[in-house]
């Protein structure tokens, strides 16, 4: 079953589905709906047929090169969720895609391109008074096999040896970027020298946190000197917000973009890397 484009016109609009499409296809045998919200939120009500996947196992702090979960751990997570290699996956959350995009990124990093996000997530689904369930969804176990796709992830050595002209996109808040506050998990405030800041929240709008129209997003990034022809490394503090911006740029047709999944929590803990602060450059 091929997921059809139902979202507003984006260059890669098939990455995003609307509640109307999901409501019409939720019973499809080859479709798995994944809820990335908290256990409490899921128990209080979820989209019928949705399984819940915990966010924490999706980042492995012991893997200091890529921070990706071990392949066997990710395989088991997918097996338990009933996701096989031919399963179409629709993911949602209630945080503007921040949690959903983390799973989307990892599915793609492990070779599973049959995944999309629900535009507007839980908020838009409920705003349209669509059915909800409080019963936990039980699904048969699947057989998932990972296939690593290296060009989705930027390891630290690749970041440090990047070529001139490669854009480092920092999607943290302006206060984190300008060193007014320390990012969650970081050892100090600051930013990677030369990084450009476009906060991930700028990708979505309205009470349902829907993705902004393609033209508005493209103009926003172009104003910061970011265009589809460029090579981009995106990061935040711990990878989740970066995954949402990765998704957004892929939605817009950007192809040469990778996530530094260790992000600033990893970078700020290193002993011999430069840290930039307003009017100060600390070269360790």
TrEMBL record:
This is thiosulfate sulfurtransferase. Its EC number is 2.8.1.1. It comes from Armatimonas rosea. It holds the Pfam family Rhodanese. It catalyses: thiosulfate + hydrogen cyanide = thiocyanate + sulfite + 2 H(+). PROSITE patterns: RHODANESE_1, RHODANESE_3. It comes from the Bacteria. It is an enzyme of class 2 (transferase).
